[in-house]
Write the structure tokens for this entry.
Amino acid sequence: MITLGEGETPLVLSRRIGPRIGCPQLYFKMEMCNPTGSFKDRGMVVAVAKAVEEGREAILCASTGNTAASAAAYAAHCALKAYVIVPRNFIARGKLAQAIAHGATIVAVDGNFDDALRLARELASCHPWALVNSVNPYRLEGQKTAAFEIVDQLGEAPDMVFIPVGNAGNISAYWQGFVEYHRAGYARQLPRMMGVQAEGAAPIVRGEPVANPQTIATAIRVGNPASWQLALKAKEESKGAINAVSDQQILEAYALLAREEGIFAEPASAAALAGLLELAQKEDLSRQVVVCIITGSGLKDPDIVQSLPARIVEVEARIGAIEEALGLR
Ligand code: F0G
């Protein structure tokens, strides 16, 4: 009854990166093609539908930006109020623009995502608002559908799935989806879940919460993930791994995706590819079917593009001037 057209996102075969790193069967799952530009819409539509069903008048979330953008959009679609709590100065401009555009009430706290989530949980316990963070089980029920789609698109589960890990809901949802599809007989195998965190925000890799997480990939700037245990379960049951990559590696992968594949992803999404690039140096991937989850759009975080060299020539509006500037005369 409620939809903005989420899901059914393309699975795109890598044309240049895969062949070059010896992984010719590398695919990108284009979750940035969801209505608000990130995978969050798959879960948000379910959580918001349930909030409507329960007769709620408002929804509430903590967010590094994408959850807020998605919550704001679906609240607008369903005529609910949305309250979003974000870490002040650490939300990408595009995401803030979305929350503003959709009319959410934005609370910018002096603190990080972990503080925002703690406050959101406290507020949800004393106000009649639906908490739509991934601690809401309906979120994971929606997000697991991406795993179903990947199996449908490939005709089988892949061998490995590289996925960025922040609050750890999505890796948990994918694993749940692959397991359920396998049990239902739609896939013969299960993939290894390869989670990727940013080095400065890698609590699961380190085995302890990070009090002051830091990374340019603000989407995954999380120090104490809510679904930590579920993510560990996904890693262990799938014989996968959760590793960390540096901001430098993230920026390199970001540039590669944009310039060699035509995929403008946000830095958090590039972290998944950075994790694969590192593994490709150590493991033979020539026979592996690998999927990288492109969780969000590069348009969300336009400031990061400054890390790339730009080709902009400023000229008079005259053909001769353009040809001269381009070195054609
Ligand atoms: N990629 C993007 C683009 C994200 O926005 C997020 C999380 C993740 C990956 C990690 O997913 O949290 O399920 O492990 N963003 C959350 C938010 C934290 O508030 O928008 P996760």
